[in-house]
Design a protein that fits this description.
Strand content: 15-25%
Largest sheet: 6 strands, parallel
CATH architecture of the largest domain: 3-Layer(aba) Sandwich
Mean pLDDT: 81
CATH topology of the largest domain: Rossmann fold
Oligomer: single chain
Strand order of the largest sheet: 3-2-6-7-1-8
Number of helices: 21
Number of domains: 3
Radius of gyration: 25 Å
Length: 551
């Protein structure tokens, strides 16, 4: 490998106090990801960097076994599951060893059930948070948003997947490429799988067309990540036109997961914030829908958060008008919906319009994207979104607006209205109108609750006030007693922004959502006994999230 690439990553290590993540991305097993990772590990070791192997699987490959020689290898941990002894990376041992760099293979790997973290990427996030740099490997088909596309292209349901945000947050992504012809030759020569598996692999997953499709996906993903990083650094605001993206969810809609993955790819190509909106009608009140529907809806909203959406639940019986009310408030430029159900004969006789027809008629200046969700086929979200690239500004930090006196910590359980009142008072401590803010928050929560099943709430308002934004944070380790959520709400972010700052609210909501999605940071916030401790945890985490060049 070229010395300049090694030097570039070495430079990142030397100038940074936090763990950096470098990903060798490939389109299939056998292209050389692990080989390249170990090569770089040796190069860094020769430059005096403390490098250990956290986890590498050789799969019996002689070249990998040879490259492992000379490394310190952290012993694996053995866990028993259903009477079997299974080996995993020992997270605690890696953290205790605290090397400068850890080489960790197969980022999307599922850990043994009942492990502290269910996924290896979660282990890696803890290692990065401890200030340890990580070099890892990943195949493109393991990205969550590509699940449906991969199933369509190669006919395989990928079991081990990780959120796209893991890759988006990586400091460096390196494409490890090999032509399909050369890869099939390597497989036939026994350099990837054992002899008894070669013929089956060549005739099934490793066909020429499958490899070409996966290779194209990888190149497209790499180009999108490079473009997103470039746009994040440009800090160009484009507030004149609506440009955010929303996807409309239904509790009974077919293939909601396909719709969400399409929206995620679409938003990723546009490099925009995106929202997932569920409109709860009177007929879908939690008291009226069955347990199975509730569980399906909960899984759908959880997947939306994992894919990076900002999730909202609105109440209303007129779906089109409720969607458009949300779209106008959040400057939505694209509304993504699933294929409407068939119109009944009675509806046709009554000249009733479908949801898509009403949205097209009412959504002036907003693009309506209708995704085929009636079948399991993928709508090729990546390809379409590639043709619709647009810019985005630098993401603000929560700590830019969250001062220590606006962080409140409750020792025991609290009530929802008590928390909202406390946060409104904290945000407007020097003002006389916090009662008005509090009243508006209560009204807003009755219309559309921002208290979610994932243990976090994002109450927010937009006002005619140039002095905004203002942010307050409530930490309630014991949870809010009267919030109707499956998981107790323990973190509440109050975000108040100005109507004159067109997209700052969306960016702050996205920033708060990223905080709430980091398990280690959430744990630190819930353990904080003083506001200054919580403030420091957030500031340190956000500093760790700066780009490699410090911008």
């Amino acid at each position: 490998m070229s010395q300049d690439k090694v030097n570039k990553f070495l430079h990142l290590i030397q100038r940074s106090a936090r763990g950096r993540l470098k990903v060798y991305l490939g389109y299939c097993a056998g292209v050389g990801k692990t080989y390249r990772m170990l090569q770089e590990g040796h190069a860094l070791t020769n430059d005096g960097i403390d490098v250990v192997v956290g986890y590498v699987e050789t799969h019996g490959r002689a070249d990998i076994v040879r490259l492992l020689q000379g490394f310190e290898i952290v012993p694996r941990r053995t866990r028993e599951y259903k009477g079997m002894q299974m080996e995993e990376m020992d997270l605690d041992a890696v953290l205790a060893r605290k090397p400068a760099v850890a080489l960790i293979d197969e980022l999307a790997h599922n850990n043994v059930p009942e492990s502290p973290n269910s996924k290896r990427y979660q282990d890696v996030q803890e290692i990065l948070a401890a200030g340890i740099h990580v070099i890892t490997t990943l195949n493109v088909q393991h990205l969550e948003s590509l699940y449906d596309t991969v199933e369509k292209l190669v006919g395989v349901k990928v079991r081990e997947r990780l959120p796209d945000t893991v890759i988006t947050d990586a400091d460096q992504i390196v494409n490890v490429d090999l032509t399909p012809e050369d890869l099939r030759k390597r497989l036939a020569e026994g350099k990837i799988y054992q002899e008894d598996k070669i013929r089956t692999a060549l005739e099934n997953f490793f066909t020429q067309s499958h490899l070409e499709n996966l290779r194209e996906l990888t190149l497209r993903e790499l180009a999108a990540q490079i473009d997103a990083h470039r746009k994040d650094q440009e800090n160009e605001e484009s507030a004149a036109m609506p440009d955010q993206i929303m996807v409309c969810l239904s509790s009974r809609g077919p293939n909601s997961d396909l719709l969400l993955r399409y929206a995620s790819r679409f938003a990723g190509r546009l490099n925009k914030n995106w929202y997932a909106l569920y409109v709860q009608t009177a007929a879908e009140d939690p008291l009226h829908i069955n347990i199975q529907t509730q569980e399906t809806l909960s899984r759908t909203l959880t997947l939306a958060k994992q894919l990076g959406a900002i999730v909202f639940t609105y109440k209303g019986d007129d779906l089109a008008s409720t969607i458009m009310r949300f779209a106008r408030e959040y400057r939505i430029g694209h509304i993504i919906i699933g294929t409407p159900s068939r119109t009944s004969l009675l509806q046709k006789l009554q000249l009733k319009k479908t949801l898509s027809e009403r949205l097209i008629r009412e959504a002036r200046g907003v693009n309506i994207v209708v995704v085929d969700t009636q079948s399991r086929r993928s709508p090729e979200g990546g390809a379409e979104a590639d043709r619709m690239a647009a810019g985005a500004g630098k993401k603000p930090d929560i700590s830019d607006f969250l001062t220590q006196n606006r962080i409140l910590i409750w020792e025991g359980q609290a009530l929802k209205e008590e928390v909202l009142r406390g946060l409104a008072r904290a945000a407007y401590a020097a003002d006389a109108d916090f009662q008005e803010i509090y009243d508006r928050l209560l009204l807003r929560e009755k219309e559309s609750s921002t208290f979610f099943n994932e243990g976090v709430a994002f109450p927010h308002l937009r006002l005619e006030d140039e002095s905004l934004p203002k942010i307050a944070l409530g930490i309630i380790p014991a949870g809010i007693a009267d919030a109707a959520t499956v998981e107790p709400v323990r973190l509440v972010f109050l975000i108040v922004t100005s109507l004159r700052q067109s997209d700052i609210q969306a960016k702050l909501l996205a920033a708060a959502s990223r905080i709430a999605g980091n398990q280690r940071l959430v744990g630190a916030l819930l353990a904080a006994q003083f506001p200054e401790t919580a403030s420091r945890e957030i500031e340190q985490w956000e500093k760790q999230g700066t780009s490699p060049d410090g911008k």
